[in-house]
């Protein structure tokens, strides 16, 4: 297939969204209630990585970056994820705490977008989660200086084996450069696919009186 044929093929890829709609009368007053329901349904559908979310940050020049991380907890106080504090995303957030999250539940023809600001988790919160991780994942946190340039994969594998031997006995200590963030959200948008591209979109925005809900054009 030539490049022009390939582009023509991509341009005409489409399908109808027929799994159902989202109506104003069915929306709870609190967006976290709907988010929890949708996340539970994504898990029940046995979607791969239902807690995977795109995390978008912006550098000092205004350049946006995105990557996938896993949501590890959520409640009324915010949404939690963990990372290397020397990573690109952490450096961005140190300068600009504003963040966007996106949950792409395409199998269910749904998306959720979250806007907010981050705050660092306490050392105790980070330690509690770190100790709950598989031992190999704890070692992996020590191995990678996230976002730095390396010459080959063998560098990582060699360091992993070295640290696995070093931490053969006892608990693995929490790296000082590893931590987490709580996303204090103020906006959540829910997207449900609809027939004929008439998708349903509702946005929740927090104000002084609680949550304001508006329907958006698809």
TrEMBL record:
UniProt KW keywords: Flavoprotein, FMN, Oxidoreductase, Pyridoxine biosynthesis
Cofactor mode of binding and number, as noted: Binds 1 FMN per subunit.
Pfam families, per the entry: PNP_phzG_C (PF10590), PNPOx_N (PF01243)
Coiled-coil regions, chain positions: none
HAMAP family associated with the record: PdxH
Family of the protein in this entry: Belongs to the pyridoxamine 5'-phosphate oxidase family.
Limits of the Pyridoxine 5'-phosphate oxidase dimerisation C-terminal domain: 178-218
Amino-acid positions noted as binding FMN in the UniProt annotation, renumbered to this chain: 67-72, 82-83, 88-89, 111, 146-147, 191, 201
Domain of life: Bacteria
Residues binding substrate: 72, 129, 133, 137, 197-199
Species whose genome carries this gene: Pantoea osteomyelitidis
EC number of the protein: 1.4.3.5
InterPro entries in the record: Pyridox_Oxase (IPR000659), Pyridox_Oxase_CS (IPR019740), Pyridox_Oxase_N (IPR011576), Pyridoxamine_oxidase_dimer_C (IPR019576), Split_barrel_FMN-bd (IPR012349)
Reactions performed catalytically: pyridoxine 5'-phosphate + O2 = pyridoxal 5'-phosphate + H2O2; pyridoxamine 5'-phosphate + O2 + H2O = pyridoxal 5'-phosphate + H2O2 + NH4(+)
PROSITE patterns: PYRIDOX_OXIDASE (PS01064)
Pathways involved: Cofactor metabolism; pyridoxal 5'-phosphate salvage; pyridoxal 5'-phosphate from pyridoxamine 5'-phosphate: step 1/1; Cofactor metabolism; pyridoxal 5'-phosphate salvage; pyridoxal 5'-phosphate from pyridoxine 5'-phosphate: step 1/1
Cofactor names: FMN
Residues annotated as domain Pyridoxamine 5'-phosphate oxidase N-terminal: 40-165
Quaternary structure and partners: Homodimer.
Job of this protein: Catalyzes the oxidation of either pyridoxine 5'-phosphate (PNP) or pyridoxamine 5'-phosphate (PMP) into pyridoxal 5'-phosphate (PLP).
SUPFAM superfamilies registered for this protein in UniProt: FMN-binding split barrel
GO molecular function: pyridoxamine phosphate oxidase activity
Name recorded for this polypeptide: Pyridoxine/pyridoxamine 5'-phosphate oxidase
